[in-house]
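tl;dr need the bound structure. longer version: we got a ligand (magnesium ion) that a collaborator sent over and nobodys looked at where it sits. i said id run it. heres the input, straight from their email, havent touched it
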Amino acid sequence: MDKLAIVVPCYNEEEVLKIASEALRGVLQDLIRKGKITEDSFILFVNDGSRDRTWELIQEEHRAYPRQVCGVKLAANAGHQLALTAGLVTAMDMCDVTVSIDADLQDDVNVIEEMIDKFQGGCDIVYGVRRERKTDTFFKRTTAQMFYKLMHLMGVKTIYNHADFRLMSRRAVEEFSRYKEQNLFLRGMMPLLGYESDNVYYDRKERVAGESKYPLKKMLALAFNGISSFSVKPISLILGMGLFIVFVSFIALAYALISYCTGHVVPGWTSLILSIWFLGGLQLLAIGMVGQYIGKIYIEVKQRPRYNIEEILTCGEK
Ligand code: UDP
Ligand code: MG
């Protein structure tokens, strides 16, 4: 049997904390009763530098249910992705499998069982995927969809409509913890691990209580981070644009020369227009070239693991 840790990042979640704790304890008890997880499975709340009573409430829950509720307190607000990482890495040594879920219970806790089934069937990562986004506002729905499309265009592998509701085996978290980068976009990183994965589907609900802790500003920052952390394609676009404009300026050269020869131009126009296009193109080309090197440096400084050895069959020893 496997020991489960449910990791919950919390930022100013005093309204929902007790409700979340109760619901998740219910899930644990149910799974324990069904013999799918061990009795010492637990919930790990990560307080992400909340300014309200969140941490006091976590302490209360811990006192009331010392075997089931644990807590981690970050000294300051680090942001959802880092708070979740802190929780996963802390839980890693204490369990066999983790499930990460938001505190607001927008994600369906009832599919955790299906996640565990898939894990026990051999998957290392199980993504929670929203079936539809009925409860999201029109704005959030369309911007999110545009974001997934853009990610795809930029060559970043992500699971469509998956946020951070996800099961990860201990070894998947261990492998993930070898990624030392500062700018995290977790859902983009998990496919890099290469482990066997699967999806479970659910309907996303409204927030139980409280307000979204992801205002537009944070959402845009996350989206930009998602692209810039995984793709140097924007730099290649500059290079491509430079090449294109230089090419166009050669066509313009031919056109201008013909115009010049047929004598239909104001003096000075030909040389002026050609210089503008050609030099503009050349500058973009040069920036793009420099960018290619910067892109390479960027990839190198991340020092991501280059591969993930899953298994070795050795010879000789018995
Ligand atoms: N959260 C966090 N740190 C932050 C912002 C959010 O730990 O700086 C947590 C928050 O408490 C919640 C989860 O991240 O558990 C997702 O936030 P929220 O539900 O507000 O985002 P939304 O569902 O509106 O995108
Ligand atoms: Mg939410």
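gonna send this back to them w/ a short note. Residues 4-213+305-313 form a domain with the Spore Coat Polysaccharide Biosynthesis Protein SpsA; Chain A fold (CATH 3.90.550.10).
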